[in-house]
Amino acid sequence: MGLNIRKQQVLEAIVESHIITAEPVSSRSVARKYRLGVSPATIRNEMSDLEELGLIEQPHTSAGRIPSQPGYRYYVDRLMKKRFLTPREEKIVHAIFARKAKALANIIQCTINTVTQLTDYLVMLSGPQLENAALRKIKALPLTPKKALVVIMTETGWVESKMVDLPSGMTEADLAHIEDVLNTYFRGLTFPQISRTILHSVYDELIKQRLVLDRIMEIVEAVLQENTDTAVYLGGVHNILKQPEYSDIVKVRNLMSFIEEDAILRAILNKTGPEEVTVRIGREINYDPAAGYSVVSAVYSIRGNAVGTIGLLGPMRMDYARAVAVIEYITDILSEVLSKDAFF
Amino acid sequence: MGLNIRKQQVLEAIVESHIITAEPVSSRSVARKYRLGVSPATIRNEMSDLEELGLIEQPHTSAGRIPSQPGYRYYVDRLMKKRFLTPREEKIVHAIFARKAKALANIIQCTINTVTQLTDYLVMLSGPQLENAALRKIKALPLTPKKALVVIMTETGWVESKMVDLPSGMTEADLAHIEDVLNTYFRGLTFPQISRTILHSVYDELIKQRLVLDRIMEIVEAVLQENTDTAVYLGGVHNILKQPEYSDIVKVRNLMSFIEEDAILRAILNKTGPEEVTVRIGREINYDPAAGYSVVSAVYSIRGNAVGTIGLLGPMRMDYARAVAVIEYITDILSEVLSKDAFF
DNA sequence: GATTAGCACTCTTATCAAATGAGTGCTAAG
DNA sequence: CTTAGCACTCATTTGATAAGAGTGCTAATC
Questions:
Q1: B311-320 mean pLDDT
Q2: Per the CB < 8 Å rule, is B253 touching A241?
Q3: Nearest-angstrom CA–CA distance, B23 and B63
Q4: What is the pLDDT of residues A143-178, one digit of tens each?
Q5: CB contact at 8 A, B84 and B192
Q6: How many helices and strands, by DSSP H and E, does chain A display?
Q7: Gap from B62 CA to C21 C1', in Å?
Q8: What share of chain B is helix, strand, coil (3-state, %, to 5)?
């Protein structure tokens, strides 16, 4: 779509004005506020063309124009200027993250709070996932005669622990043996790589300790499970209600009913691409009830391994330049903090 | 307040009708639907008296009556009939909880989902707290030369673990020694009981291992902290938006902005009394922005020790009989499941 | 040929008055 | 003590009108 300069300027004006006001944009206001040196009538002609091209649309005959989904897309891809946080904001964010190492849960909550303050959108964050992380070590530590603590460490530095019941008659030596075997077979593998074949060999070798082994494998699976099914953390629900489009209760209900479904949010976040920041507009989200929304999201990582996603959900009319700036900055910092804090 | 039988019947009719319809109740509809064998005019006289007593009120001159806060209170304390879940519902709940032992996070999420389905209110659940639990055992397990895993077990069966950095030159024997000393001093104490005095004795005894000890105490404190500041889990936000009172966006915003504040929800839940189920109506919640709501909540426990709270928040007009029945049943089941699942 | 002023036309929103109707309070009769 | 009857109040609905915003088109202008 090779738009001439002026058409681009008009489209840009319409998008940016609509982002600010949430109202349809009239030819007159474009001419007045964005000083293109032409009269409203000329703008009207350009608008007419843009509408023909499907980039803007008219809610009704006697209203101004609003950007269409392709219009926003065009804006995001070609017209939007890269923006940054103010030094002041950057300093605030840094200060929040600079405090001494925190528990994972704290870091997550902290991140959400920060982003909630920086934008007026809904913040979604999927927690670190072990899926791609290689196992570093498994330990089975006897605590009481009938209980042991299974500790699983990954290369990315996460440590998970769980209790297992021990069958009676099991000695510490047995446990140590199991530990050895597991480490030999599993070290360096990622969870998905621990295939049936490998499990079989392990079972063969440890045929005598079948009972405990079953329990331990249950644990390993549970840990894996918990981390792929990892919850999506939310923040800023009240934020999004500030947006004028949500003075309509029906829309709020629609929004609420799908943001309460963990599975849906996870699906939305998981489609985040590998690029620095992914912007999905309206139907591009590929989930009907979210058709009226947009999502700006990015992946954060621990020493290069993508482990989780953070995203903003807002109306299609969201301030993309701002959202992209915030998400970009936060994922950078978050990745940095997590990498530094890792446990080895 | 000794109301005669008929006044009680009228009040009951008004409360129950208003709970169902959310509309002011007219004398005519009371006479018609609740067959008291008297005419609307008589009901009107009774209503007039009830209004004088402050139990009901009129939104405006030509409207029916709605219960006032004291009116609901009177209803809850004296008129409301105890209700139970249907056998069908009980079976469903049981089925959900019957599955094999789950991770704590799953139990919580599971409980919330269940209650969300059973009612039309907002579900709040504060996770198990260690605060009142006595320490059973502390273990410091060397994992790598520079890291150890500190495991803290309580009498209620919870196990928490955290990594600590070891100062260089620290041997396994040193660690074992620290472990011994901590166990000697701390076993059987609850977290709040680990006072400064006790800490001092420990420090004296372990003066040489000051560095690690500092880290370990940090951990103990962090675990304590995390568990008193324990998050409040929410569910059913979309539920509450079904209530007709929340077709007003302003009310929704007010609600959202305070339910997103963990601290506030915690404060509300924490005021739950020791009785089987606590009902707080409107201003009784003692938090101004929640004055228009009611909370039905109860404490759940692990083998007799109260560890957390579950509550429903709804409009003052909420179906108290139903809410009480649900909360009572769920806390019973939850306590049972948690007690059975505990780790010793 | 591109730009613009001018004007008719469309559609939404605001406003107001009148009509409607639900519900009460009071009075007087049963 | 109860109740029928009626006047009165107040919120809500309805319809009609006016006001306003914005466009599209045409014809004049640069």
A1: 97
A2: yes
A3: 9
A4: 777 778 888 887 766 777 777 777 777 788 888 888
A5: no
A6: 13, 10
A7: 11
A8: 55, 20, 30
If DSSP states are collapsed to H, E and C, what string results for A119-173? CCCEEEEECCCCCCCEEEEEEEEEEECCEEEEEEEECCCCEEEEEEECCCCCCHH
Does one domain contain both A93 and A106? yes
Contact A292, A282 (CB under 8 A): yes
Closest C-alpha among A54, A61, A67 to residue A22 = A67
Q: What is the reported pLDDT for B344? A: 43
Structure tokens at A274: 């590998």
Q: In the numeric block, which tokens belong to residue A207? A: 């045929």
Residues of chain B that touch chain A, judged by Cβ-Cβ distance less than 8 Å:
103, 105-106, 109, 137, 139, 141, 143-144, 147, 149, 151, 153, 159, 161-163, 222, 226, 231, 235-238, 241-242, 246-249, 252-253, 256-257, 260, 343-344
* DSSP per-residue codes, A289-329: GGTTEEEEEEEEEETTEEEEEEEEEEETT--HHHHHHHHHH
Clarify whether residues B58 and B172 are in a common domain. no
**Co-location of B44 and B122 in the same domain:** no
Nucleotides of C under 7 A from a protein CB: 3-6, 9-12, 21-27
B233 strand-pairing partners = B125
Distance separating alpha carbons of residues A209 and A216, to the nearest angstrom? 11
Q: Are A255 and A240 in contact, with CB atoms under 8 Å apart?
A: yes
Domain match, B61 and B171 both: no
Q: What is the Cα–Cα distance from B35 to B328, expressed in whole angstroms?
A: 32
* CATH code of the domain in which B148 resides: 3.30.390
Beta bridge partners of A302: A305
Percentage of chain B with pLDDT > 90? 49
What is Dmax (Cα atoms) for chain A?
91
End-to-end CA, chain B: 52
